Records
---
Amino acid sequence: MKNSKRYISPSLFGLIVICFFLPFVTVSCQGRQIATLSGIDLALGKAIEGQRMNPNTFALLAFITAVIGIFAGFLKNIKNNIVSSIIGAAGFVCVLLIKSDISSIKIESQYIKLLKIEYRIGLILVVILFICVVIYNLISFYLNRNEIKDE
């Protein structure tokens, strides 16, 4: 049972990576949907109605932290929980900063004030999963630390 628990953290990070392929934001103007962007679209940039959108640095960093977290979860010492918690916290902060940096979605339009950006299920799941990663790894570290003291 204890051996199977070591796959929980990498699995959570893997789910985060998968969620980056789900819709993160929907851009609409006067009720007409212009684009739906996944986390990968935000991280790498995408053309919207002929205009190239710049990559969102924080989305790219959050994706990279999730990928690194998959591998960090397989470290074989007690520090893997701390490392995974730090990586998860960094990813969480990057995801929160996506909203503040959403200005990178610039569509040249005379109706720029009419644009509406809605946050979608992919972004919500990524936030929740990063929180789960941090909490799980901190609890695991605490429990493992107490087991080591008892021995």
---
Amino acid sequence: MGARKIKSENMVDLLVLDEEWVGLIIEAKNMGMQLEEVRSFLEKIVKDDGNKG
């Protein structure tokens, strides 16, 4: 999965988003999820989001 650009009105939104995602990834790791499981989950969300609209 390549890097994706996120449109935002200001950098604060991006920083908050990054902190939230980092926290969620750490929580998943602490729950015992493997990196590939997290990656698959995120890819599914991106794919599903792309199919809306």
---
Amino acid sequence: MKRWIYLMSAALLFLLACNSEPKKETSENASKENSGLEIVKRPFQNSEQIEYEISVVKGTAIKHGMQKRYYLHGSLYSAIPYVAGKKQGVAYTYYQAALDREPQVWKEQPYEEDDLHGKCMRYHRNGTLQAEYEYKNGLRAVGLKEYTESGKAIEAPSLLLTKHRIATGYLIQARLNDDFDNVDYYIGDLLEGKYMPKKMKALQTRNNIGEVVVSQTSGTVTITAEYSTRYRNRGVVSKSIQL
């Protein structure tokens, strides 16, 4: 990890040591107190039902340990690990389940220093893999693999680019080869050829077609499209065009 994480961890250990006192109790709460941590419970609005259980450094708002969130009826909604106030490790989101049953994992997302980092997975209610996609340091990678409940791979769309010579340069038009919801188009180079940088320039969209005018000296132009699937996953495709 980066150097500041070590500094934060050292400071956290100091706080934990300062907050620790000898206890005779053997309960879970006593164990938390001995470690310098405490569980903060937050109910739903206008309800006594607990929505969040958050492990924090005692006497502070610094999250350290597991944060759990629940559905209103009481089953586990998510479990997110924290280290020194930042998400660190694999976070899980669950489908709603009966209280006498183990909840089924819906999302599996790895974090590093508060950013999504690594391969993310989503699952159907029957436990089969629904989707997998990648992040690096919080940046989304091109690509999305999706599967039906029976395990059949779903074909990803293709990005189609056309160019039209105009007086001020070229009009670039972008569209997907199939109908998808919430399609956003962007222009700009990808980091390492596959990761979407933050604050990419968005294209104007008309009739589900992205459009942008570029100069004659632009050389090669890269267009990236982000779209929603029927499973509500976000897919990313990218393509370059030579002017």
